[in-house]
Amino acid sequence: MAVLQRAGGKKEEGGFIALEKYRDYRYPPEHDWQYSHNTRFWHILAAKLAFIIIMEHVVFAVKFFVAWMISDVPTDVKARIKRERYLIQEYLHHYEVEKLRVQLSQHSGHSSTEPATAPTVTVETHNIYSECL
Question: Would residue 60 be called left, alpha or beta, if left means φ above 0 and alpha means ψ between -120 and 50 degrees?
Fold first, then answer.
């Protein structure tokens, strides 16, 4: 194996001993705060964390936008539900109107000596078929 001279290598009797240098964001050995992280390290770390947090928020925003755009319930099912609600409200309205009509007719034509008979209410019913909704 050949030993290559590198920048900053020390010369010894038998050849060169290379000093391995790597890029690190620490203070050098001669500094008062030797081997502790310098301000460039903290700036880069803050930038990395900010990038991660921003990208996380972008991903969540896109996810919520796509979830909002794609409905959980198909539109034809929503239309059927609205139609069923409308038919139920219409049925209840007709039932209440007919019930009041029967009660008013009993009070106006009813004498105090006759026994009360049970009213018969006939209400127009709607057959709800899923095929016609």
Answer: alpha
In a domain, 132, yes or no: yes
Using only C-alpha atoms, what is the Rg of the chain? 43
What pLDDT digit, counting tens, does each position of 66-117 carry?
999 988 888 899 999 999 999 999 999 999 999 999 999 888 865 555 555 5
Residue 3 within any structural domain of the chain: no
| Contact residues for 19 (Cβ-Cβ < 8 A; gap 6+) | 6, 8, 9, 10
Domains: count for the chain: 2
Which single residue is written with the structure tokens 């020390």? 10
Q: What is the spatial distance between Cα 113 and Cα 110, in angstroms, rounded to a whole number? A: 9
**Residue with structure tokens 């391995």?**
20
Q: Are residue 47 and residue 65 in the same domain, yes or no? A: yes
The token pair that represents 111 in the structure block: 């004498």
Is 0.90 topped by the overall pTM?
Answer: no
Say if residue 59 is in the same domain as residue 98: no
Q: Report if residue 102 sits inside a domain.
A: yes
